[in-house]
Amino acid sequence: MQLPLLELDLLRTLIAAVDRGTLREAARVIGRTESAVSLQMKRLDELVGVKLLEKRGRSLRLTTAGEQLVDYARRFMDLNYEALQAVSGFQIEGRVRLGLVQDFAEGTLPNILAAFSRAHPSVELEVKVERSCDLATLFLQDSLDLMLFFCLGRPPARIASTLVGSAPMVWVWREPLTITDEIRLILFEPPCVFRRTALKQLAGRRWKQSFLTSSLSGTWAAVQAGLGISLRSPIGLPRSLSAGTNLPGQKELPQVSIYLGRRERSPSAAVDRLQVEITKAVRESLSGMNA
Q1: Where in the chain are the domains?
Q2: Angle, CA 27 vertex, CA 21 and CA 31 arms, to 5°
Q3: pLDDT tens-digit profile of 175-187?
């Protein structure tokens, strides 16, 4: 029996539907009508012989089979791009303005960005490291082509973005952990999703802000010095510090979503390539962290 061949166009639409949450948003991203996207998903269901997406309220959710296929779909799209690049021999040129939160800029991505620059020396790479809220401002001012940022829930619709993954929020402390009647907190300046979550978690308990910063390295240094505890993700967490998803008497912390925003104007091969590399690197990092 000859198996059917999966069409890359259908897989691209599946990825868009998953990342954007609705067929309407997927249609806007790939430049088709909503009815055309719906027909594509029906065609893909028929090809694989099972239903891949189901509606939950106004949003779409992957079935178990869909969760398996979408991972392959992303790999197919990556391989398609790499194959085209390899056989065509074109030289990628241009400029990419990338925004990163400090958690990734100080750990996961510098080596990836260095490798990208070596592979594409004609690409001018400009990197800005800021808080998520500041990156969003720059993005909406058209000052960034790509931005990797944290978010609780979904980003505003005006920020075109793809969900890359999620990470646990954790309390961070220096051993031994000592909880007193008044908890001393090391916090980022507002607005900050980690600060907001920490204060919500501690509602009804006595706390005081012992250290205020907008620097991740400053946060780690303050915790290491014993000035208090903080709340972050485990991304880039120094080995000298300890972390956990709850404190004695407190509820377990939520996950924080990681999105990659992309400016939708003027398609660029350089932006395409870097988007693929960052997405792959972050997902591999998160997979290793949760293993």
Answers
A1: 8-74, 91-168+256-290, 170-253
A2: 145
A3: 998 888 899 999 9
